[in-house]
Write a structure and sequence with these properties.
single chain; eight-stranded mixed β-sheet; 11 helices; globular
């Protein structure tokens, strides 16, 4: 079981890339002591300035010193680690091999979690005696700006451990949702992919441009999602209205079993989005940097709008 307060917890984050670094910020924000493991000298060197900048924005610069980095599992001070968060590349074999090692390094009572966005924790945990204390802990990029975190129970996961992990995440200022069935994509990504399948199908059909699809979501129903999710929104609008519309619309929605051509063709051409300079949009470096700044700024402003509804962070220490 995890400590009741983050300040009493020592966590190990495996991987200091984009996700691992931001997960370390989330944990340090709550007051955890965090050891990050990453073999890359370059990646480790970037960690501390990134952590300090993010925590300074929150008025918690003093907590940056609680984050340290080491190059290998054997270098981490494992004796009092209570939580491990795996943030290595999305490769099942790599993850399974890592957790087989973690069983040897981490204390027998430590909670072992994976930030995988697709692999069920039950698949990662196959054959391990640590299955009862293994869970999915899925953050959303950027983890320190997007409040949601999914706590995913596998069929062998101890429900009490999952509950204590949810409580810890609230203590770190995140909004945990408990996912009770270990299905691919978990909760939020299944919702996202259901929307994306229809969006890309409409682009394939020539029904709308990528720009108009984005505008329809951002300035239409997506704008309302800041105030109410899809279930609460239906209560606002009236379930009878939604049910009648669903009966008309559902038969024509995409139920494709493969990604849309608009997506497949771009991937085949190496047009992967910002990281390659083009996707559905063109991304010269100046535009990419401007877009990242705009995106992060709006997320920060969204956090301010939702501040009263987010779990409070203990700033007394």
């Amino acid at each position: 079981m995890l400590p009741a307060h983050p300040k009493d917890l020592h966590a190990a984050v495996i991987g200091a890339g984009t996700m691992g670094a931001d997960v370390a910020i989330v944990l340090a924000r709550g007051g955890c002591r965090v050891t990050v493991v990453d073999p890359s000298d370059v990646t480790r060197a970037k960690l501390q300035p990134h952590v300090l900048q993010a925590l300074t924005t929150l008025g918690l610069a003093r907590r940056a010193d609680a984050v340290t980095a080491v190059p290998a599992l054997a270098d981490a001070p494992w004796n009092d680690v209570a939580l491990v968060v795996e943030c290595i590349p999305e490769n099942l074999a790599l993850k399974q091999a890592l957790f087989a090692q973690l069983v040897k390094f981490a204390p027998s009572g430590a909670v072992l979690t994976s930030n995988s966005s697709s692999f069920p924790i039950s698949v990662i945990a196959q054959g391990l005696d640590s299955r009862q204390r293994m869970l999915g802990l899925h953050f959303f990029m950027p983890a320190h700006l997007v409040p949601l975190v999914e706590v995913v129970r596998g069929p062998d996961s101890d429900p009490a451990v999952a509950d204590s992990l949810c409580a810890l995440m609230r203590g770190c200022g995140s909004v945990p949702v408990l996912v009770r069935k270990d299905k691919p994509g978990f909760l939020a990504n299944r919702l996202q992919h259901a929307l994306a399948r229809e969006a890309f199908a409409m682009i394939d059909e020539g029904m709308a441009s990528p720009e108009d699809v984005d505008a329809a979501v951002r300035f239409g129903f997506g704008f309302r999602f800041l105030a109410a999710g899809p279930v609460l929104q239906r209560d606002h609008a009236g379930l009878d209205v939604h049910c009648a519309a669903a009966a008309t619309i559902y038969p024509s929605l995409s139920n494709a079993l493969e990604p849309a051509l608009a997506l497949q063709d771009r991937v085949s051409a190496g047009q992967l989005g910002m990281k390659t300079g083009s996707g559905f949009y063109d991304w010269p470096e100046s535009r990419r940097l401007a877009e990242r700044a705009r995106y992060d700024r709006l997320l920060q402003e969204g956090l301010h709008l939702l501040a009263a509804e987010l779990p409070p962070i203990d700033t007394s220490f």
